[in-house]
Design goal:
heterodimer, A: about 525 residues, mainly alpha, three-stranded antiparallel sheet, 21 helices, about 70% helix, B: about 525 residues, 22 helices, 3 strands, globular, transmembrane helix (chain B), NADH dehydrogenase activity (chain B)
Amino acid sequence: MLATVLTAQPVPPADKLSAPAIDYGAIMPVLIVLGAACVGVLVEAFLPKHQRWPVQVVLSLATLAGAGIAMAVYLGDESTPKNGVITLAGTLAVDRPALFLWGTLLVLTLGALLLIADRSVEPGGAFVAEAAIRPGTIQDRAQVAGTGMQTEVFPLTLFALGGMMVFTSANDLLTMFIALEVLSLPLYLMCGLARRRRLLSQEAAVKYFLLGAFASAFFLYGLALLYGYAGSVKLADISNAAAGTDRSDALLFGGLGLLVVGLLFKASVGPFHTWTPDVYQGAPTPITAFMAACTKVAAFGGMLRVLQVGFESTSWEWRGVLWGVAIVSMVIGAVLGLTQTDVKRMIAYSSIAHAGFLLIGSIALTDQGLSGTLFYLLTYGFTTLAAFGVISLVRNADGEATHLSQWAGLAKRSPVTAAVFTFILLALAGIPLTSGFVGKFVIFSAALQDGMAPLVVIALIASAVAAFFYLRVIVLMYFSEPAADGPSVTVPGAFTTASITLGVIATLVLGVLPAFALDWAGSGTFAFQ
Amino acid sequence: MNTAPVVPAVTTSPSASFLLWLLLLVPLLGGIAVAFLRDAKTAKLAALGIALLEFVLVIPTWIAYDPAGSRIQLSSSMDWIPNFGVHLALGVDGISLVMIALIGLLMPIVIGSSWADKLPEGRSVGGFYALLLVMQAGMIGVFAATDVFLFYVFFEAVLVPMYFLIGRFGGPRRQYAAVKFFLYSLLGGLIMLGSVIGLYVVSGDKLGSGTLDWATLTTVISQESQATQTWLFLGFFVAFAIKAPLVPLHTWLPDAAAEAPVGVGVLLVGILDKIGTYGFLRYCLPMFPAASKDLAPLVLVLGVAGLLYGALLATGQNDMKRFVAYTSIAHFGFIAVGIFAFSSQSVSGAVLYMFNHGLSTGMLFLVVGMVIARGGSTLISDYGGMAKLTPLLGGLFLVAGLAGLSLPGTNSFVSEFLVLIGAYPSRPVFAILATIGMILAALYVLWAYQRIMHGPVRGDALLGALKGPGAVAAPETATRQGIKDLDAREIAVLTPLVVLIIVLGFYPAPILDVIGPSVEATLHSVIPLGGN
């Protein structure tokens, strides 16, 4: 096997080098997103400052629409194979789970982009006028008062989205690594672009960058070890190599371990979560929303593919370890979430607990586990998007009022905002008739079917503990008297309203009538080739 | 007892099945509409109108139900989430019909009793009644659902309005009580969710594709191994034991009942807690007969412990609402003993008690609320000799109390008697211990009544109301100013309860006839395995 793979592609003479076949229809959404990102960079270069914002907004929204239409056309085409295609010389697998994840990413990015584009909540938008301005200087104070904005954030978002889409459909580890970098680098940058609280924002960016670089290095090292083991970076080859050979397991499991650490970091699964609260808190809220919703989808999409395609045959060996990781993540998220006093950090710890639930679904190596995790990603993305949308509205003179004590009595002053946030919190807690409940049901039933009953019990107890801190916010908003100098709720502009509405309606619909989305999520499995 | 069929047959009777949907939708949509009413008076009238309409709708439902007919009647079903075999399926048996009737009966009374309540500052009247009606819809759903998933959804959904009713409209420690109530119930609910998912997975292994249809599950799961049944049973049992509540999972109830507004408290102890005992009957016994039989001694111990412990704590309470809550815990212990003694008398008695307890404890809670509304204090020690000032209120307090201690001639006596004679042949020790509970009931009720109503007029609440702050007048010279006896609205609220308590004390047949066949069918799932 080793020999065949290494010698499979003898270097052909230069005149016989032929381009690999490309299924343009299948990868059109990715091409549109990445192409538009490049156009966005050109817009930054050639258009005058005052024209950039409207052009970028229109371009980004049109890109998402175009990518969505391209995907719909591809799916609607009768000749599209049901079990997916492998294209670009075996580097991309466009199968049903990949398409589901692409759709999820596109819709969630639409929601996040609407938040990013909003300039009514914070005059001029949530982003700094010039990233190079040093915090605390006169220029900094001037830009806080002004309305200028770094519109590079739009192409950066599209690049990150393109990276995420490739990440979820990468059929080999090298492509996956490149996609990981493409999605990560813009995020590092965007974390540091907050208009207010620049130091906190920059600290978040540096922290995310340093830890992210470590995680990438882990991933790369794991990749190298796996190549050493299997002689190929393709997931299917690794799986074939691992089945019934007498090669050293040290390379295989060493490689897998390092690879998974990289993935768990991106997915903010405890104990690889340490960056999450700081980055969620420091990043501009629209970017936090983008990261919380989309990075989670991409990371777990990649993890599902790696575990189900590459390592299913050796699951007996590694599943116990990921059991432990899932438990640690749920416990850390639920218990440390109790002690938080900042609403963004609280949602961050909630996301760590949810990552634990998602990991349970990911290691249930069945069709139900796959479709359940995909569905959960969809529901969690919408809910968390709406949560950060609401958080961006509660403000005082210094910007967002994220300290929990400032949320006291919110229901009295703005009943609609409080009601919406209550609904979101109930969804995060998994109360029936919200999408969070259906998500829990599908994941836990998949886990139970795959013989993980103790894990399900722990997850249910963690849910109960986590419910306490969601409840605490509801108590504050509804049952406490408002503070005298408390924050006010900004009346959101059209963009933020649209984004929150999208998240809330999806949370409700997926909770009450989830059948159609469950059908999509369960419409196919990973291509194995 | 050889009449009841082993396999419950579900008949679809489209002719009358819309009644259950109406019962569910009228309060739900009505509640949403009431939430938008700005004017307090309009909101109250609308809520009362909806509650009365709901009561009127119960009557044809009661008539349409044929006690001699199949196990589940008025049933209807439509696909909801086909991926999990989940249906929107409603239907009633005798037990759930009686509970739905109790909801329909108590709701107008609760709204009438809350009519003059002063809500905390800044809270909207429309919101209060909207939450009450939405909760009514949820409770109807709990009792009418014949799909386990749907049941679970209603079971959890009821928490939300209750949480806001306690937390927004309750007493001084309402936040603490609301959160405690919610967390206890949610924890139980999540443990039950584990079992619900377990049912789905086990039935999937057995049938090929999983289902959560109650009737199918009772036939499939009851054939499962002892171990599977025990684990699934425990998940449901913990949730229901928290809800009921059984000692030692009861600590949320006194707090919640003490802080809740009086009307909400009536619903809490009168109906919401019955979900727990109803769950034992509807889910634990038919689905897990082997586990139920195995663990029956455990439940009986908890039940007897609850009825003695609740009685002792009720005796020691100085807070009237907590007093009612502890009497309620004692009564739930009694009901649990009746259910898990597995004889047709004891289970019939327990179901009858579920209905009667709603009337008698509901009335006791209302009367206590009227005392508190007059004196402004919830402490028994702030009262004394009140019957001299308010003879009618004193008399009705006594009626409610006597019903609570199961005096012959009141409704509760019939049910307690049935439980005791049903339990004695198979479980004599528990029956004897339960009798001690009855004696303690006489102690705590009469002692509380005596302290509040008899003797010379005394206590800060009454004297303060008579003479203004700081008055230390001789009670005999006290005039009646300040404290008035029951007004017409309060009499109207209590009259139906008094009538029912006495009528059902002498003639319980209308209820017993309805629940009888369902009780037999429930028992049949346990007994054929060779029990008593």
